[in-house]
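Q: What residues go here?
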């Protein structure tokens, strides 16, 4: 097993322990691809914040340049049916989680997109927001009781971005907010 896969499994084992002990009302993740599997296995609502290459499989550009086509094609091939699906399957098997493909993730996960003008094909699970770095996106579903319990915010493997606005909004809705990030 590669060091990356070993570290990903270890991180998810630790995250499962945190989520089990915390029992948050919602998990907000940046980007949340791997966290979604874990949250689903624990019955915790999850929201992903995605931008840029994470959206490649559903981006619809009106008149893309050859370079844009190449980037979208490579990213889509890596994510859907490629390396990412193999990684998702490995993590699911290693931790006994429900199987998830990246395509299904994009179709079913609640996703906030901090690029409101980006043309995407997709369903009602996609919410637009106008923050440049990141945002909680669409309103949290009514099934989640705001103001009680806690919210866990996770910034995963992506490039760090400021989380201040997200933490501020979450703090106004939840009594407890726990943030984990790969920022130094």
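A:
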């Amino acid at each position: 097993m590669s060091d990356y896969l070993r570290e990903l499994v270890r991180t998810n084992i630790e995250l499962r322990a945190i989520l089990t002990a915390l029992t948050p009302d919602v998990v907000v993740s940046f980007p949340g691809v791997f966290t979604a599997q874990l949250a689903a296995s624990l019955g915790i609502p999850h929201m992903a914040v995605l931008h840029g290459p994470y959206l490649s499989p559903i981006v619809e550009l009106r008149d893309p340049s050859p370079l844009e086509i190449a980037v979208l094609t490579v990213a889509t091939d890596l994510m859907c049916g490629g390396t990412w699906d193999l990684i998702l399957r490995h993590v699911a098997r290693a931790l006994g989680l429900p199987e998830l493909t990246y395509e299904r993730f994009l179709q079913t996960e609640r996703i906030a997109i901090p690029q409101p003008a980006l043309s995407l094909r997709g369903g009602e699970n996609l919410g637009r927001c106008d923050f440049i770095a990141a945002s909680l996106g669409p309103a949290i579903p009514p099934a989640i009781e705001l103001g009680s319990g806690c919210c866990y915010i996770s910034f995963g493997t992506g490039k760090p971005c400021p989380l201040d606005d997200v933490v501020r909004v979450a703090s106004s809705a939840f009594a407890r907010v726990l943030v984990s990030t790969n920022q130094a």
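A: Context that may help when evaluating the design: The chain has six helices and six strands. The CA atoms of residues 151 and 177 lie 5 Å apart.
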